[in-house]
Structures are given as structure tokens and as C-alpha cells.
Amino acid sequence: MKGAVKVFLQITTAIVFLLSCSLPIKADESVSNHPLHWGMKRSRNHQPAEAGELFEKTLAKYGSFYIGDTSKKDIYLTFDNGYENGYTAEILDVLKKKKVPATFFVTGHYISKNGDLIKRMVDEGHIVGNHTWHHPDLTQVSDIRLKKELQLVEEEYKKITGKDDMMYLRPPRGIFSERTLKLSRDLGYVNVFWSLAFVDWYVNNQKGWRYAYDNIVEQIHPGAVILLHTVSEDNAKALAKVIDTLRDQGYTFKSLDDLMLEKTMPKPLMYEKYFYLKKDTQE
Asked: In the annotation, is 229 catalytic?
């Protein structure tokens, strides 16, 4: 079922991009390159995080997102991987044991030095996303450089996995503009931001598993796209407890592919597709 859904998603996403992005990629001076720094009003008491009208409209215009359906208790676990600090394998162990899907956004530094972990992510059913090769502010690089930043990661990913299906991008440091959203979209990417995050990346200032646990549980909300960093020991030690607690609260962990299916496919067609896929797996 998962393989069929993945293929169907790639086909429908490709059609959307072909219909909306038929012109050659080139500098478009009519599109603003004014830098925007991602941020949102944090969730409390299971109420959805809010990014504000400007961010909401800008992301929607270019097919980007930061949150799922806030009427459903589906949540999406994502990790940013800038470099390896010894905790990714432990995180993967927990995800495998708990049967939770995740997306790992990797930089050039990470993917070029951790091929075994990248392969394990894919083999265990996770998604590997693009976090650029050098982690630059994309609003400050040329169109050619932006394209190269993405292509280098794609090429290394294909070399390791044999796959050519990278489609999600997380802009470094959450800095973006209409130009970067449009250009990356035209290159076939969906920009994925987040609706739940906290300061977890200072490796010399880890505060214990309870710090990570409390920050996640206190901010959780329906449709949450959770951003964590794999360099954090706190995150690695808290993850199993977080998963158990959120499931006890009625939340379901899903993949970004599931979210994209909901966003790109008309509901009657989506329900029909799932019905036949489910039927096929039961026969």
C-alpha cells in the first residue's frame, strides 16, 4: 500500500507542477525577494499554532505549508540534520520500535558523511528531505546557486539510495522569500515549515529529556508539523515517551506524504484511492 501511495503521490504532484510551472526557470524580477523569517504564535491547550495572514497567504500561493488539517489529530514528525552528533541511530531505533514515520531534512555535510544512516532512513520507510548543501540564506544567493544547492543534495541522495524522489525542502534557518518559494517550487519542491519547535540545537546546553518532553507535549495540537534536531540528546532520550503520551492523547503520527495526499487530491478521489488500495491489500 505504501509503495502504491508513494507512486500515486509523485504522479499527482508532478502533474500539479507541470500545470503551474511550464515556463523555464529564470530570474523573475516581479517576484519579491524580501527576506521573511519564519515564526508563529505557539500552540497552547491543543489549539493550532498561528503564523499570521502574511505567512499563510505567501505559503499557500506557492504550495508550501507548515501545518496539517487542524480538525484532525494527525501529526507529522520532522527532523533537521545538519551534522551527526551520535543520536540519529537511537532516534531511528525508537521510530522503528514504535512504528512512527518521520522526515529527515539533511544538509550536504550530513548526507556526504552519513550514507549508512541515510540508507537506513529510506530502508525503514522514512522520507529524506532537502535542507540544501551548504545551509545558506536562500534569499541571498543567485537562482543558479539556489538550484545547485538543491541538486548537490539530490545527487548524493541518489548515489546512496538509487532513488530520485526527493521532493520536500526545508529552507535553512526558516528564511525565505516569494522568490525562493517560487524558484524551489519550479524545481519540483514543496517547502515544509513547522508549527511546533523549541530551542533544542545547542549541544553544549542540553537540559535533560524532560525539557524536550515538556516543550513538545505543551505545544502539541491537531495537524502539528513538529521540528526537532537530531543533534539533541534530550530529543533522543525523550522521543519514546513523547510518542506514547501523544498517542494516549489520541494523536496519530503520519508522514508528509499522507499530508500531501490530502492537500493535492480531491477528497472523493482520495477516499476512492484509499478504498481500492486497502481492498487490494486485503485480497
From this structure: yes
